[in-house]
Amino acid sequence: MANPNDPALHSWIDIAPGSDFPIQNLPFGVFETAERGPRLGVAIGEYVLDLYAVAQFGFFDDLELGAKMPKVFRRRSLNQFIALGRPAWRAVRQRVSELLRHDNPALRNQEEAMRECLVRQSEVRMLRPVKPQNYTDFYSSIEHATNVGIMFRDPANALLPNWRHIPIGYHGRASSIVVSGTDIRRPNGQRKAPDAAAPSFGPSQQLDFELEVGFIVGKGTHLGETVPIQYAEEHIFGLVLFNDWSARDIQSWEYVPLGPFLGKSFGSSVSPWVVTLDALEPFRVAGPVQEPEPLLYLRQLDNHNFDVHLEVAIQPEGGPETTVSRSNFGLMYWSMAQQLTHQASNGCNLQVGDLYASGTISGATPDSLGSMLELAWRGTRPLPLADGSERKFLLDGDRVTMRGYCEKDGLRIGFGEVTGKVLPAPAG
Ligand code: MN
Q: Staple partner for 225: which of 200, 221, 314, 427, CB 3.0–4.6 Å?
């Protein structure tokens, strides 16, 4: 059987060069149309392959996916499909790859099946890909943590003493995670300017984005069980782009001493297509050298970071888009495996569909920072946009779009995008 990641594979479906969704990617998502849905699908070029329809035509019959077939493909989230386990995800991705290969007539030559199984992406509405029971946000970029430390604490001691020992994180809010395209309402909240005598309640004046990548748990654990670092990646289904919208003024007033709360929980956005860890295999890279060496339970060999190019663009209402940042997921100090092993190290149980986000992904240069806070340096260096305006933080009507892709040896696979527009705060 051919390796679905083989750069030489090509499909009988026309796929534009530079598409995020060549035959080597095959990310999973959930969609609906006026006539059908919700259904699980796989992105291929400009199309969605309807997995329920594929199953109905019998193309999965010999895969032994269990009694939940085919209704597992007719669900509002990927959770039940993911719960079937890695052998099932691999078998489905492998079969989809075979069906879409240029030299396989099985689907291509059956006109009725082809019409039923392929839907144009322009005709579908994408839903949130998973129903996360739990959401954790980490803080794993050393550049980001250093920048925040310089701005808010002490430039000479920007990193707190624990940072190089623990993948720092906090438990976030799963219920307000929304799919790309959902508008984000500016939150009201309590904030206190440094020179104000007392706090006040009202619309956040410092609304921000955070460029992050999230991973989705594919294999849970029982309460009390831990995950040795060498098995951590077996618990990961795939990756999404993640915008952890943040209200800096609310955050900076409320976060002492228990950490982020309402400055974060008003909304986070995920991209609709989950790129599997299997598809990302060719893009493994080494992370930064960890100094001092982590404690034994977090120590790992080989390459556990992934070379994903990331971009952030801001588009004011009715205006042109400006790319304001270009960063890379491969820069992260703590790997996803280390995050997962650390999360489970106290016996806390992981659940299928949990979402763990990386933390803001900032690079070392001024054009690779992953938040407005850093790009405009806490409002002291307003960021110019293509329409001639400038930003310290986000304004109502601003659309923030994040994109991500991997590229190597002529093979390019992408994440699509996560986008959201800022709406005015609710009155009163
Ligand atoms: Mn964050």
A: 221
